[in-house]
Write a structure and sequence with these properties.
heterodimer; A: Rossmann fold; 2 domains; seven-stranded mixed beta sheet; 20% strand; B: 12 helices
Chain lengths: 325, 361
């Protein structure tokens, strides 16, 4: 078993998948010979040819629109949007075409494909290299929303995305692309969509997150145990659509308290949906309202990004607050 | 191919009297011309009936292709049946050419239980997997990059097929047009971009849509072989698409065809064109009717006469009448279809919503 970071794990998974399945192709801005600005597609063009791994013109709407046609014709594109902040020129293609295609064509021209995109803050990227736009896509039925939080998950989730019959937006935490190493099994494995990981069991509070935020949550849980012997159950959702509501309900029913943490702004973030579901399904078990620990309702800042982000310190504060409610 | 789209050069081989130019290089089989004519007559009759049904309140909406029938039918006729078509809403003549029946079309226009897409879209959003016609989408330009992608997939799978993508001149102002052409050109995708320049995007005339010399010149800017034809001339349209198809399959990349025509009808049943254009202008174009032109040619060649016309009209009217009678008693789509095909499988959460709010006990 090899130790890999997230980039290496994704690259390894793509190589394995490409060698087994000739229907796979990948493209995006600088995704060809150069291997993408984060090098996730590195080496694919050399090994599998320019027809299956290539640079595209600089247009996100074009990348997604082109991928839709490729997928309708029966191939499986894995396209790359260089930064999630730049996905918005493709918003119409994603929301009005990709997500609705199976439905509006009466199941006749589905277009299962994968949009890989690095997201999130903590890299001094300012407004346009830091955002977490998941909520903008979760309000659109028809697309799966996946969040990678580590090298092991990266492979298992990407393999599942490749097998999926539905379109997938595959969010990758660029902040920890290289910072985190884990053992990644060489053989194929699949992490099912809609199954959260209970990363740490606990009994006092349920703490929910995804992607890079999950590691801040783990850190907060560890420190709270060391300082106050608080027992935090940490859920890493892995996929937001489908959502593992059963895991959330089971956990909150046990702990009676729930905190959701995400990098995206508080208002209308996915935390709001989780809070609504928990209040609906766990109302009589709750000792406190659901708390949300999130980015501020501001554009993503630059110099003050660590003040903006819900880091472990802020998560700890939210948990102390909910314990005192 | 005859030419690149240069200023004011519109290829026309058959004049309004049905006279074919002696220099026309295209030899079209009689059977194709007759089938094309019959398809055009069906298209025009069904078009008229759908508008009447909308005015009577029987269906919600209809879009006319009056005066533009031949551009769609002649272009579809020049393709092979396993070539893909991405139509806009006004090219139902193309799907009739492929064999879509009056019944299938009318069920779709009624959005009823026998509509292929379960009434999920507005009328005029036809399509068929069996006929390799991708269902229409309301946004006007979004399918242009799709067509490029599908054509690229054909190319790398070494299929000997092309994609034809229809759109109007208004769509060429959308980013998706530029993006689709550029991607297709760079990847040398075998796709024919077919622009029906019918003079109007709802009420907006060409001169308020773009300042350049039509659409063909836009293709040249992307390195795409571009050509402008008389869209009401069966020979010009058929010939251009046949040549373009060959060009694509020779690996030379995409082709853009600008077919000059005129939207004699309204944009849709929600539109009133008398508010923004002169009756005189419309009348001028009514005199250039593409179906009448083809009929004159067929008659001169002894392929058509008034007896055949009478028989055809009787047959077409009967088909349409039967289709309408059937659609009028066809129920709405199955309620459960509401939650099907959003995903490959129905998610548990969606099934729960359905059971809670929709399903009657």
């Amino acid at each position: 078993m090899a130790e890999m970071n997230i980039i290496q794990s994704l690259n390894h998974t793509l190589h394995e998948a490409f060698s087994k399945d000739k229907k796979l192709l990948t493209f995006g801005e600088d995704a060809g010979n150069f291997g993408g600005v984060f090098r996730v597609t590195s080496g694919l063009q050399k090994q599998f040819g320019e027809e299956r791994c290539f640079n595209t013109p600089l247009s996100e709407a074009g990348i997604v629109g082109f991928a839709i046609g490729v997928a309708q014709k029966g191939l499986k594109p894995i396209c790359e949007i260089q930064f999630a902040d730049y996905i918005f020129p493709a918003y119409d293609q994603i929301v009005n075409e990709l997500a609705k295609m199976r439905y509006r064509t009466g199941n006749e021209y589905p277009c299962p494909l994968i949009i890989r995109t690095p997201y999130g803050g903590g890299i001094h990227g300012g407004h346009y290299h830091s955002q977490s736009p998941e909520a903008q896509f979760l309000h659109t039925p028809g697309i799966h929303i996946v969040f990678v939080s580590g090298p092991y998950d990266a492979k298992g989730l990407l393999n599942t995305a490749i097998q999926s019959n539905d379109p997938v937006i595959f969010f990758e935490p660029k902040r920890i692309y290289r910072a985190l190493k884990e053992d990644v099994p060489p053989e194929d494995y699949f992490i099912p969509f809609g199954k959260a990981e209970i990363a740490k069991e606990g009994k006092d509070v349920t703490l929910i997150g995804w992607g890079a935020q999950h590691h801040q949550n783990m850190l907060a849980a560890k420190e709270l145990y060391e300082s106050y012997s608080l027992s935090i159950e940490v859920l890493n959702l892995r996929t937001l659509n489908p959502l593992d509501i059963d895991a959330i309900v089971a956990s909150v029913t046990k702990t009676a308290r729930c905190v959701v943490a995400h990098e995206a702004p508080l208002t209308m973030g996915f935390g709001a949906e989780i809070a609504a579901l928990v209040s609906e399904k766990c109302f009589l078990h709750l000792e406190a309202p659901v708390y949300r620990c999130c980015g501020l309702d501001t554009p993503f800042p630059n110099a003050l990004e660590h003040e903006y982000l819900p880091d472990a310190l802020r998560v700890k504060k939210a948990i102390m607050d909910i314990m005192e409610y | 191919m005859q030419q690149d789209g240069k200023k004011n050069e519109t290829i026309c081989w058959m004049d309004q009297n049905g006279e074919l130019s002696a220099s026309c290089p295209h030899d079209i089989e009689d059977a194709i011309l007759v089938k094309g004519y019959k398809t055009a007559v069906l298209t025009r009759h069904i078009d008229r009936q759908m508008i009447i049904l909308q005015r009577q309140g029987t269906i919600s909406f209809a879009m006319s292709c009056l005066g533009e029938e031949i551009s769609a039918i002649a272009s579809a006729a020049a393709l092979k049946d396993d070539d893909w078509i991405y139509p806009q809403y006004r090219e139902y003549g193309a799907i009739f050419w492929r064999g879509f029946s009056a019944k299938q079309y009318v069920h779709h226009m009624f959005c009823d239980a026998n509509d292929i897409i379960f009434g999920r879209q507005m009328p005029n959003h036809f399509g068929s997997r069996k006929l390799n016609v991708v269902h229409v989408s309301s946004p006007i330009g979004t399918k242009i990059p799709h067509a490029a992608g599908a054509a690229y997939a054909m190319k790398i799978q070494e299929e000997k097929n092309v994609v034809l993508c229809y759109f109007g001149e208004g769509a060429t102002s959308e980013g998706d047009f530029h993006v689709g052409l550029n991607f297709a050109a760079v990847r040398k995708a075998p796709v024919i971009f077919f622009c029906r320049n019918n003079g109007f995007a709802i009420s907006t005339p060409c001169q308020e849509q773009f300042a350049c010399d039509g659409i063909a010149s836009k293709g040249s800017g992307y390195g795409i072989h571009s050509i402008k034809v008389d869209g009401n001339d069966f020979f010009a349209v058929y010939g251009a698409v046949s040549d373009a198809r060959k060009w694509c399959l020779d690996g030379k990349g995409p082709v853009l065809i600008e077919a000059m025509t005129y939207r004699v009808g309204a944009h849709s049943t929600s539109d009133d064109p008398s508010l923004y254009r002169d009756d005189e202008e419309v009348k001028k174009w009514q005199d250039k009717d593409p179906i009448a032109r083809l009929r004159l040619y067929l008659e001169k060649k002894g392929l058509w006469d008034s007896v055949k016309q009478q028989e055809l009209e009787k047959e077409v009217n009967q088909q349409i009448e039967e289709a309408i009678t059937e659609a009028k008693v066809t129920p709405k789509p199955n309620t459960h279809s509401l939650i099907e095909n959003v995903y490959f499988d129905i998610p548990r959460s969606l099934a729960a919503q359905y059971n809670q709010w929709v399903k009657t006990p």
